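Chapter review: from sequence to fold.
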Amino acid sequence: MTVTGDRALSLLMFGCGNMGAAIASGAVARMPTIDITAVDPDVERARQLLPPQAPVKVLSDFEGLNDRHFDVCIVSVKPQHVEAALQAARTSLPDALVISIAAGIPLARLRAAAPRLRRLVRVMPNLPALAASAMSVGFADRDSVSAKDRQVVEEVFGAIGRFCWLASENDIDLATGVTGSGPGYVFAFTEHLQRAAEQMGFPGDVAEQFARQTVIGAARLLEQDPRTAHDLKVAVTSPGGTTAAGLAVLEAPGALPTLLVKTTTAAAGRAAQLASIQQ
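The token string follows.
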């Protein structure tokens, strides 16, 4: 049940690429009363990204909207197309809650592009949205976005994983260094774990299976076990054992703990830099 009760929540999506399709797929799967229309110039590709027979109407341009009004709009086009999309669809959004997932586009720029829009939210999901396991972060001005609006955001993005509100819009850049870029760090770790197994003499396909399933299994345990990551690390580490020997190298001064601080800081700094360029 959506926050609108028994009435269908009408949602307009600008763009139905990988992330847009993931959000639409999660929403229709977990929000049975939602009504989604997507506008994407590549209708065929959008349909391929959506689940078969997904109840999502896909249009090639905004003219097909026929000035229909929507409750919610999700802006999932490339940053350089955000303002043009908001202008093209403005007659369909007189009272809409507008959620932008466009990287680096601040709320001030969204307001400048469409001055009549007041209910604006920024959300940054990450790549695991494609597997309904995203960690999405969001920010909205309390003065313009109601508690009900926030509940809508939580419900839509909760359909593709977990969602967390941030206290400041600037925190989006900081969170990007962890949540946005974090999957890349995990993939890199998996890749190098595979390479290490290969150097030990295991065939490539076997090494890949070892690395991939080890990371998948550890992630699922994190998801299902209430213990912290630290507690689980302690649980798998016997004093003087093999894991302890490996962790002594991985967690040595200047190794993983220091590298991850530098890694997330570099990514967050680049996110802030890109945001300043977009402004």
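Two observations follow directly from the output. The two ends are 38 Å apart (CA to CA). The chain is about 50% helix and 15% strand.
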